[in-house]
Each structure stands twice: as structure tokens, then as C-alpha cells.
Write a structure and sequence with these properties.
The chain is about 80% helix and about 0% strand. It is mainly alpha-helical and about 250 residues long. Among the domains are: about 110 residues, Serine Threonine Protein Phosphatase 5, Tetratricopeptide repeat; about 55 residues, no CATH class. α5 packs antiparallel against α6, α7 runs antiparallel to α8 and α12 runs parallel beside α14. The longest helix is centred in the first third of the chain and has 24 residues.
Length: about 250
């Protein structure tokens, strides 16, 4: 009995101390300290059920899992909600939200039209609208129109000069067979665009240019990053990895 009781008591005390630390660090009411310490282990169990469990269920990992499940079961939900909001109130914010949702479904004609309609009046030079529309034009294989918008965007000021803009320039240059300019822009964007899109698009460009060895080095880098990435990052990361791999396979 003694050999069993002492370890159990030590474990209960350790857990109680950890819960008390959580109480203090999160600014909870100090009466929790007395409940946890005086009524071991029941007090700790009550605290865990009343405070810790709801916190964990509201945590970012749980939210991401719920969001992923909703997107898998109902991929059109975000679009429907954005469309309903835009129909109720046609603000620029709601148009941008609907454009992003349309882009997520690959509705590039609609995406381009929404950004074009939103970029009117005082919003004509809005960097987010110009870049969003340029991205849609690139997906529609209209690189010259995209380049015209990007050149306007580059004149807006520092707010318009982002890694995403540089990547869009690279894609427009490639679409216009301006390989040297595309190479320079892809190289600049590859390490600056968050996530794996910049690296993957540069690898795909190098593969299309016949520079397979350089593309393979980038693809290996992408694989290493994916292996170390948290689970919620891997789904999107694999999309960009596949884009690079398909270019290397000539598809």
C-alpha cells in the first residue's frame, strides 16, 4: 500500500502545482488555488473540467480542425456566406470577401470581375484590389493585363511593394516569355513569400526552363520543410509541392 500510495500522492501534488501555476499565469480567480490544493485530487479535476477543457476546445488547433472539417464537408459554405453578405450590403469589404471565396473555388472569371468592380472611385488604387485582380488575370492566362495592373501597383508606394507582388510580376513576365525578368523576380520572391508557394513556383519555372538540377534542389528543400511542418500547414504545402513536381514531370 505504501509503495503505491506515495507515488500516487506525489503525482497528485505535482499536477496540483502545475494547475496552480496555470491559475496564476492566466489571471484566474485566486480561490482556485485553495480548491486545487485543499481538495486534491478532486479540486484539480474540477478546475480541469471547468477551465482547462473549454480553453482547449477553443484553442487554435481545434479551430483549425473544425474549419478543415467544414471545408471538406461543405466546400461552398464560405462562398455562400460571402455571397449572402455581399447581396445584403455591397461594400468593398464584402466584395473582397466574395472574391476570395470565389478564388478558393477556382471561379477566376467571377473573381476578376469582383475585384474590378470593387476598384472604383477612392478604391481605384487599393493595393489589395489591384493585386487580387492581377492574380485572377494570371489564372485566366491574361499576363499582359496582369502586368499592366502590377505596374500601376508598383507606383502606389511601399504598401504595394510586397513579396506577393514580386511573385505576381514573375508569373506575368513568364507568361510573356520575358524569361530573364521572370527569373530575377522568382528568385527574389522565393524566399520572401510566406509558406511554400514562392519556392514551388520558382521550382516549376526552373523546370519549364530546362534547369532541372536547380529545380530538384528546390523540390528537396520543399520536401524537408513539409516533413518538419505542423499538420495544419501540410495540406496547403502539399498543393504547392505538387505544382512543382508536376512541372518537373512535364505536366
Amino acid at each position: 500500500m505504501m509503495s503505491f500510495g506515495l507515488p500516487a500522492l506525489g503525482l497528485s501534488l505535482l499536477l496540483s502545482v502545475l494547475l496552480c501555476v496555470h491559475v496564476v499565469r492566466t489571471g484566474r480567480e485566486l480561490y482556485w488555488l485553495f480548491i486545487i490544493l485543499l481538495f486534491q485530487p478532486i479540486g484539480g479535476m474540477v478546475y480541469a473540467a471547468a477551465i482547462l477543457a473549454p480553453e482547449l476546445l477553443r484553442g487554435p488547433a481545434i479551430r483549425r480542425a473544425r474549419q478543415a472539417a467544414r471545408e471538406t464537408l461543405d466546400p461552398n459554405r464560405a462562398y455562400r456566406e460571402a455571397k449572402a453578405a455581399a447581396e445584403e450590403s455591397l461594400t468593398v469589404h464584402n466584395q473582397m470577401r466574395l472574391a476570395a471565396a470565389a478564388a478558393g473555388l477556382g471561379r477566376w472569371d467571377e473573381t476578376e470581375a469582383l475585384y474590378r468592380e470593387a476598384a472604383q472611385g477612392v478604391h481605384a488604387e487599393d493595393p489589395a484590389l489591384l493585386l487580387g485582380r492581377a492574380g485572377a488575370l494570371l489564372e485566366l492566362d491574361r499576363p499582359q493585363e496582369a502586368l499592366t495592373l502590377l505596374e500601376r501597383l508598383s507606383q502606389v508606394g511601399d504598401k504595394g511593394r510586397t513579396p506577393q507582388m514580386t511573385l505576381a510580376f514573375a508569373r506575368a513576365y513568364e507568361g510573356l516569355d520575358r524569361a530573364a525578368e521572370a527569373d530575377k523576380a522568382y528568385d527574389s520572391a522565393a524566399g520572401r513569400v510566406p509558406g511554400l508557394e514562392g519556392l514551388a513556383r520558382r521550382a516549376a519555372f526552373l523546370a519549364r526552363q530546362g534547369r532541372r538540377g536547380e529545380a530538384e534542389v528546390l523540390l528537396a528543400d520543399i520536401d524537408q520543410r513539409l516533413a518538419k511542418a505542423p499538420p495544419h500547414f501540410r495540406k496547403e504545402g502539399r498543393v504547392w509541392r505538387d505544382l512543382a513536381a508536376e512541372a518537373m514531370a512535364g505536366r
